[in-house]
Amino acid sequence: ECYVQNTAREYAKIYAAEAEPLEGFGEAPEIIPIFLVHRPANNIPYATVEEELVGEFVKYSVKDGKEINFLRRDSEAGQKCCTFQHWVYEKTNGNLLVTDLQGVGMKLTDVGIATLAKGYKGFKGNCSISFIEQFRALHQCNKYCEMLGLKSLRSTHQKQRKPTSMKSKTLSNSPTVKKTVSKKAREPRDFTSSEN
User: Fold this and answer.
1) Any idea where the Alpha-type protein kinase domain is (predicted)?
2) Taking burial as the number of CB atoms within 10 A of a residue's CB, which of 73, 81, 110, 154 is the most buried?
3) 4-39: per-residue pLDDT in tens?
């Protein structure tokens, strides 16, 4: 838990250093540090300690990407969290994604990290690779992504799809009648959402 959150914190510091000088960007999200404490006299000898966050606690992203969250899409903090995810994804060439962003205002805690199966530079996250796939499919860039010059994931995601091809398929009722059905029409459709 400490390793994941403090690793995400380091990425957040670099993100803030790049974003805050940009005109109109303003404050960047901060991931608060978490510390492991050893208490040898206690029945549970290890505990984590972090700053108490006071105020309305909001989830700006969720681990599985399925929860609808208007505060994420419509609030400044939510948009900046989405941009942070996009920035990390791009900086790590799609190998790592900080997810489960939540907290009070711009102060975040209890985050997760998803990595590709092989990990990223020796680091393996605590979330499934499916979170990266969902992010790539569902992320919608906002003005903060544009301010940082991040590349749209829509064009990248669409390029990875195979072009549709036409194949003949024989109808089962008549061996002499053929019907042309595009490959795309036969494949299951991808789930898409207007949610960030």
Assistant:
1) 1-153
2) 81
3) 999 999 999 999 999 999 999 999 999 999 999 999
Residue with tokens 């290890």: 46
The answer to whether 108 and 30 have CB atoms below 8 angstroms apart is yes
Catalytic residue among 64, 74, 100, 190: 100
Domains held by the chain: number: 1
Q: Which two tokens stand for residue 160?
A: 């990875």
Q: What is the pLDDT of residues 159-175, one digit of tens each?
A: 444 444 443 333 334 34
Residue 109 lies inside a defined structural domain of this protein:
yes
Domain assignment present for 155: no
196 secondary structure, DSSP code: -
Domain coverage including residue 67: 1-148
Residues whose CB falls within 8 Å of the CB of residue 33, separated by 6 or more in sequence, listed in order: 5, 6, 9, 50, 51
**Rounded Cα–Cα distance for residues 83 and 46 (Å):** 34
Phi, psi at residue 139, to the nearest 5°?
Answer: -65, 135
Distance of CA 164 to the CA centre of its chain: 28
Cα angle, residue 32 at apex, residues 87 and 75 outer, rounded to 5°: 55
Question: What is the CATH number for 62?
Answer: 3.20.200.10
Identify whether 158 is part of a domain. no
For residue 126, what are its two tokens? Answer: 């605590």
- Residue 108 domain flag: yes
